[in-house]
Write a structure and sequence with these properties.
heterodimer; A: 116 residues; mainly beta; 11 strands; 0% helix; globular; B: mainly beta; 4-stranded antiparallel beta sheet; 12 strands
Amino acid sequence: DTGVSQDPRHKITKRGQNVTFRCDPISEHNRLYWYRQTLGQGPEFLTYFQNEAQLEKSRLLSDRFSAERPKGSFSTLEIQRTEQGDSAMYLCASSLVPGGSTDTQYFGPGTRLTVL
Amino acid sequence: AQTVTQSQPEMSVQEAETVTLSCTYDTSESDYYLFWYKQPPSRQMILVIRQEAYKQQNATENRFSVNFQKAAKSFSLKISDSQLGDAAMYFCAYRSARNRDDKIIFGKGTRLHILP
């Protein structure tokens, strides 16, 4: 267990529904990242926060996706009007920057989304 | 743009033997980090080993070591005395050393099977 938790672990939804995932990082970590991993692929970067500020968003993050980290602690990732192509594992990671060797990103267990 | 290539989708090794996983990457940057992450079946991704590009000495963590060839842009992982618990997907990954470019770029992974 890396100390990063995600909820729920699994989510099945119907196309067109909205879903929200939560990530709780390691408590002292100031950076929080979201990645998406489809079957047979490596994770792909979506976005990251430093404290409550969203510093970078990937082009993969369409207008239907929104992420927040309101108090610089936990984060939520919302997908509106889900599509079958959104089916994937959504991974959260956290790190402490600057931190020398501690700026390593530690990953959570992921939320597996299935869109029917 | 940076890319990471893992040319071995699957590998098998006999328990207690040594195996080497290959990785090449492409970047125009001179300062960066390279990683190997392990993702066991249905479990979260964990960091195996990390290499700073400015360090000539190859990183070592117990039974895991890397062969970092900066000029060739090659970063292989050697696992000695393979154990059943080493069975997993292994991802080679790259991260820029620029403070605000903090995303990790992953390869597609190599699935490692350990034969008893």
